[in-house]
Amino acid sequence: MTTKPWREIARPHKDVLEGSFQQSEFAADLTEVVSGTASEEYRDAEKFFARTFITEGMKLLLTSVAKRLAGRGGDPVIQLQTAFGGGKTHTMLAVYHLAVRKTKLNKLTGISSILKEVGIKDLPQANVAVLDGNNLSPSQPLRHGEITVNTLWGELAWQLLGKAGYDKVAAADRDGTSPGKDALKELLGEAAPCVVLMDELVAFIRQFGAGEQYQAGTFDTNMSFIQALTEAAKAEPRAILLASLPESDLEVGGDVGQRALAALEKFFGRVESVWKPVALEEAFEIVRRRLFDKVGDKKQMDSVCKSFMGLYTDSPDLFPPITQTADYHDRLRGSYPIHPEIFDRLYEDWSTLDKFQKTRGVLQYMAIVIHRLWNSENRDALIMPGSIPLDDIETKNKSIHYLPQGWEPVIDSEIDGPRSTPVDIDGLDLRFGGVQAARRAARTIFLGSAPSTSGQTIRGIDMDRILLGTVQPQQSVAVFQDVLGRLRDTLHHLYSENDRYWFDVTPNLRREMESRKQKIGDAEELLPLVKKEVSRVLGSKHLFAGVHVFTPSSDVPDEYGTGPRLVVLPPSAAYSPAADNLAFQAANEILRQRGDQPRQKQNRLIFLSGDQDVISRLLDQSRTLLAWMSIFEDFKADRMVYQSNQMAEVKRAIDGVGKTVGQLVRDAYKWLLSPIEEFVDKKPSFKWEVVAVSPSAPNLIQEIEHKLYEEEWLISNWSPIHLRNLLSDWYFKDSQNEVNPQKLYQDTCRYLYLPRLASDRVLKDAISSGLESEDFFGFARGKEGEQYLGFAFGQTTLVTMDDSELLIERDTAKEYAARLEKDRQGETISTETEVKSGQTSGKQDVGPDAPKDGGASTTDKSPLKQFFGTIQLDDVQAKMQFAQIVDEVIEQFTSRPDTKVKISVDIQAHSKKGFDETTQRSVRENCNVLKFTNSEFEEGE
Q1: What average pLDDT does this structure show over 829-840?
Q2: pLDDT interval class at 922 (50, 70, 90)
Q3: Cβ distance 574 to 615 under 8 Å?
Q4: 641 SS3 class
Q5: How far apart are CA 432 and CA 422, in angstroms?
Q6: How far apart are the first and last CA of the chain?
Q7: Residues contacting 467, CB < 8 A, separation 6+
Q8: How far apart, in whole angstroms, are the C-alpha atoms of residue 930 and residue 911?
């Protein structure tokens, strides 16, 4: 169920809606009320009480005043001491209206119930004196008709009893000396019931210089007066004295103000009852009553509050523990339609600022906020920290009014300006934009962190408080958690540590990072890092003879090798399916040339290219990583001064961006490019075939290998039928009926129209498999004249891939096999004839196993105990051939436990030009390391 917006339930007062309120109207002024010049809401007692929430403290105060005026006890002296804007003057106004009785008591909202509780049916009209320190001057007397009043006591007497009262203290007023306690007691007795309201007393007395005489007396005479007045009020049962004293240094002023406050606190402390008028929870109602004409239907309000409580209790680990209590539900209802978190931040954090006036400051601030939200048709369920429209000029100006210089550009660029980064983040991601997650989070962090002081040891606002100030029912908490990471990685004035976030006018290390990022050289720093990351992702275990990352054509070997080569193209040669491809141009250059020379083994190369759309992000993040790494190195080398949390920030950034770079490598390098040549109408046609590998595969190099086999761009198992077809198409025609398998393999490495074999073993296995039957081809180890040496057809044999071996066309092999069979049968007939002839001529009988030369039978020979073998190895393929000799021959002996094998290697090298000193030195050193028994250079022929 959708939670109903606050604007459909509650309605602000008319002046808030219209923006017609004046900030000064939020500041009650006793003198203006007494003179009749104040606004009607303060001047008219009925309207004043209608919009005044009587707090518990104010109720106790008014009760005490009523008792005192009725002569039934009560406190004679009450000191009101709260921080700036804490409601002192407002409380005095309530006492004033109650005492002067210009309006019937039953029309003063809340007063009747107070009087009823103490059993007072009515109150007498009292004489009231209002002494406003801001309206009095030590050097400027006040005139009341023909009477000139110089001092506080002269003004007090005049206001209570007019000329008759003044006459009682006239001499003291003219001399600037304090009247005695008895004179003041007499004055209060004649004026009783009476009320004396002394507001901003420190503001008046701090104007007296030490030892200076003024028309209003001296510092000491005024202190003596206050002391005497408190004693006199205590002695008169129907007199009451209320005095407001400041709590904040801003109100106290300089040294004289501090001295005055200390003295006044001492005097009042002897007789007064200290009262602090506004508790935090009561402040909610004060603000709500002043700003809202009606809160709305109780059921609808309760429904909204229950929705928020459901959100909090469903995810107890994500919100502050206080939200899990029943009391928090009461707080939601008590502050509706304003979220309690706004009050907590304003009263707990912003009230610590010198210029912020507690309740008065909250009223002024929230009136501007509500006016803007109403006119912009805000649809939030509650007015939350994330709702505060800092993009509004009035709201922004009011916010920065309390803060040090430098906050305006921070708000405009990184919190809530129309071209700010959070606005961009919301605009680029639908998940964030749908709930304005970035802007709401930034506003909440600002409200919770901007009012900082130099003495703070812990900065910022916890993540659970940020979520409390942003998330509404039916919204995903995860979206706001994600956007915090995006803000942290993007903003220049946002700091974070241990899940605490705060803004500061001083740029964070990200600004330093961005500056360094712009100075990173592509060739010197960027490409080496990207190359390293690509190489790391590809790894070292693979089937390729070599993986060449960003390698120029001259450094990509042109050899047959033991496998194909994977050439990774540089970022400048990225591939795009929808554009002219630099990838093809770069790959073609490497394919055709090795430096200045034509490349011969073109069919050994496969290319991997980055995606053009992702490469730019990879390069950007790689620059970011390099910038963070350079800052880290400067920290370690003490080339930069840093705070304790900044080292952790840099490490976290390196780790996070490093992971991003690794993932972007996977996302970018996904295009495999294979050169293909086909024959169309007997004419060669070249093209590039392209296929994508999955970036999400666990292992990139294995995925590349799998894709090569899948696309048949690389052959690891070759059927004899395919080999026979290739031989028929390209080699066995025009009376050509045999081919050297080594040449065949080398051709597959050279020509793009032939299959690309993983290694020569693929060809050897195909030959061996094909020789098991007579369906494909024949084989010979060599040929002398018309005779095949080591001929095999329909039987397996060892294939070494030397330059004398031959693959023989099937029909030719079949004919040769038939001829051999015929010759063998002829030899058998001849032998049988000789045997028969021997029998008739008396020769020794010869059995089938007898040697042809008539010698002893093989069964009578001694066992063969030694083997010697010599073979010439090709200088290019020596490594491969020697490995094959070990597999096929030497292992036949080493597998026998009673056999000892001795292997010697003879190397002869001849150069027509001779060997230079460098070559000689290298060979000699390597031979010594390898423990050659003999190695030397000779002049030779």
Answers
A1: 54
A2: confident
A3: yes
A4: coil
A5: 10
A6: 101
A7: 318, 319, 477, 480, 481
A8: 23
pLDDT at 853: 42
Do residues 390 and 384 touch, judged by C-beta distance below 8 A?
Answer: no
The segment with the largest mean pLDDT, out of 62-66, 661-665, 860-864, is: 661-665
CA distances from 517 to 420, 591, 629, 639 (A): 21, 35, 11, 18
Pairwise CA distance, residues 36 & 172, whole Å: 30
Q: Per DSSP, what are the bridge partners of residue 648?
A: none
CA angle 159, 162, 163 (to 5 degrees): 140
Closest listed residue to residue 62, CA positions, set 127, 132, 109, 130:
109
Burial string for 456-476 (b: 16+ CB within 10 Å, else e) reads: eeebbbebbbbbbbbbbbebe
pLDDT in tens, 865-917: 777 788 877 666 676 677 778 767 887 777 666 788 888 888 888 887 788 87
Q: Which helix (H) or strand (E) holds 784?
A: strand 782-784
> Which token pair is 98?
């109650």
3-state DSSP percent of the chain in helix, strand and coil, to 5: 50, 10, 35
Per-residue confidence (pLDDT) for residue 863, from 0 to 100: 72
More confident residue, 856 or 708: 708
CA angle 865, 866, 871 (to 5 degrees): 150
Q: Are strands 777-780 and 669-680 parallel, antiparallel or unpaired?
A: unpaired
For residues 451 and 350, the answer to whether their CB atoms sit within 8 Å is yes
Q: Where do the domains of the chain lie?
A: 28-278, 281-506, 517-694, 715-819
Q: Are 881 and 873 in contact (CB under 8 A)?
A: yes
Phi, psi of 428 (to 5 degrees): -95, -10
Length, in residues, of the chain? 941
| CA dist list (Å): 112 to 35, 63, 75, 119, 194 | 27, 11, 20, 10, 21
Half-sphere exposure for 419 (CA within 13 Å, toward CB): 1
Whether the CB-CB separation of 240 and 273 falls below 8 Å is answered with no
CA distance 360 to 688: 75
Instruction: Label residue 248 by pLDDT band (50, 70, 90).
Output: low
Average pLDDT, the chain: 86
Cα gap 336→5, rounded to integer Å: 12
Contact 606, 713 (CB under 8 A): yes
Q: For residue 792, how many other CB atoms are within 10 A of its CB?
A: 21
Q: What is the pLDDT of residues 166-189, one digit of tens each?
A: 999 999 999 999 998 999 999 999
Tell me the residue type at 394. Answer: E
**Rounded-to-integer distance, Cα 313 and Cα 315, Å:** 5
Give whole-number Cα distances, 289 to 49, 97, 110, 286, 813, in Å.
Answer: 11, 19, 14, 5, 109
Full DSSP string of 350-407: GGGSTT--HHHHHHHHHHHHHHHHHHTT---SSB-GGG--TTSHHHHHHHHHTS-TTH
Of 783, 778, 790, 779, the C-alpha closest to 804 is 783
479 pLDDT above the threshold of 60: yes
Between CA 20 and CA 22 the distance in angstroms is 6
**In sequence order, what DSSP letters do the residues of 402-425 get, joined into one string?**
TS-TTHHHHHHHHTS-TTSHHHHH
Q: Cis ω on the peptide bond leading into residue 755 (within 30° of 0)? A: no
Helices within 596-669 (DSSP H only) = 612-636, 644-668
Three-class DSSP category at 202? helix
Per DSSP, 847 falls in state: -
With residue 530 as reference, give the H or E element that holds it.
helix 527-538
Stated pTM of the model? 0.57
Give CATH superfamily name and number for 28-278. Answer: P-loop containing nucleotide triphosphate hydrolases (3.40.50.300)
| β 605-610/565-568 pair status | parallel
